[in-house]
């Protein structure tokens, strides 16, 4: 069984390619990626298929030429969650990047008689926060933004399409995927930590289930050839939940920085909540996002190999490592 990966230039895709390309098993069985353009530092043992198309469009007939009987498709490609001044336009862009792209790829996989389709969805399909609840795979999704709604619609389409075309399906719903070298909110938190200033984020006792990049890549590889689970929608998370304060402490430790946290008094917090945009940002830091992934782990036969601390301190992935790995293979300097 060869692996065909879409979205190999993204945050998760780069790390996954690095992990798989180093292993003799996948060097022998085959590792192919579907991409818009060749990477600056292509790796040995990886076949890069450049797929043309306009915007977020891929054409099924193009995709078919790079898929073979019995392949496993790992579908990571999509559009990142982002705000927009025009919600209707953003909704259309998200659907094109997720539903339309997935339909083309799944149809190509079915036409070529691929064996398995692994779709990377998101735990955001449940909601933006869990409140006093704990989400599990049977919780009814209530997506709140265009990104999550597009992911949920894509899941539903795959659940209908794949059984009709004898294509095994595994849907992974990861919590926040984190790493020392992640972008977005994690990078912003790291910038705050590097200032050395005391941060008003002490005393947060919320619980958030996330998954490290190292654990997530391990899980995806496990899903390539594990027995097909009876319940094919699985939550992806580390073995332990963290409060935001605990996560910040781990980030600081990974950066080799000391962290000083203090708790905002209620009267000041209430005043700050009147500021535009503050409430939304504060909720992201202070709210619960609790996930129960134990039934999914049992169904898949998987246990997260790394603790959050091990993931950040010992198994972090830097994009520059990909260039270094490629330069060792080619003899060139990155």
TrEMBL record:
Pfam family, one: Epimerase
Ranges for domain NAD-dependent epimerase/dehydratase: 3-208
Biochemical pathway: Bacterial outer membrane biogenesis; LPS O-antigen biosynthesis
Matching InterPro entries: Epimerase_deHydtase (IPR001509), NAD(P)-bd_dom_sf (IPR036291)
Record family assignment: Belongs to the NAD(P)-dependent epimerase/dehydratase family.
Stated name of the protein: Nucleoside-diphosphate-sugar epimerase
